Amino acid sequence: MDNSFVDLRLNHHAAQAEEGFWPAFTDIMTVILMIFMLAMVVLLIRNMELLDQLRSTMAAEQEAMELVKTAGEENQTLEERLLSREYELSMMRMQLMRAEEQQEQQEAAIASQLHQISSLSLERDNLESNVTRLTHDKDDLNVQVSRLTHDKDSLNVQVTRLTTDTNRLQVLIDNATRSVENLSEDVNRLTKRHTLALGELKSLRTSYRAQSEELAVAQAQNMDSDQTLADLKIDFQALKIKYDKLVRPARTSRGKFVVVVRFAKIKGQLVIDYKAPGSEVFNTVSRKQLDQSLTRLKAQESNQLYVKVIIPKNSGLSYNEAWTFTNQMHRKYDYYFQEDAKKERMINE
Predict the structure, then answer these.
(1) Full domain range(s) for residue 314
(2) What is the pLDDT of residues 306-338, one digit of tens each?
(3) Hey, which residues does 263 pair with through a beta bridge?
């Protein structure tokens, strides 16, 4: 008699044909299912005990209420006992509420466990279906192997037939080769004549290429001469400007219409003070008003405008701000810098 344990697995005869993974997984699923069933039984027994306690508590509450009705006119001692009974009743109610909450939690836990059991069962069914599908795929592959083996035999027969055809074609090729040799002699004669014609054509091309190169060299020399002449003209103009700067008089306000512009920054705001020719006081203006006044004076005085820019000692300006403003005023409106700008434009043109 076999003393081993009874095999409780589902489809254990079919599972023996598979690898060791599927029996082990089925055993695990069976154990998990039994554990969940035992836990559910324990929880149900616990709920029954709690219901019994609840019934006894309700009975005690009913008895306490009857005692309260009959002992309404008793002394202070009975009142103290009544208060004690009411306190016990409150505690029992709290226990009842806690028991109800525990029951709800246990019911939720049971529902969750049942859901997990259902999910695991579904997963087990999916795995079993995968095993079945893989078995079918294996059978299909075996059929394909058989068919390919048959195709291989057919191809071997075709190779034998093609070998016979190849031998027959080789005889035809030998006959064609002899015909080609005869034609090759004719081709060689024509090739010699073609070679002579190519030699004459090559000599003509060489002569044409040499003449084209001579023409290109002449054109390049002509272009280099034009570029050199243009560069020399630009260098001459630049040297002439430098010479004029050296020999011309220095910048002076004598005989010029002098305007004074004072530029500073006060509390983060740019402030421009302007004094027109012949005026003794400064007027605070905006940059737009300053440009309009200087443009008008520049047109009236015909390049005789001398712009004096004053940067106070504690102006609050950075070096770049002061230099940029001064350079803009001179290059736009001062007579001395207008001549330099005009000559630079001539060189660029």
Answers:
(1) 253-348
(2) 999 999 988 899 999 999 999 999 999 998 887
(3) 272
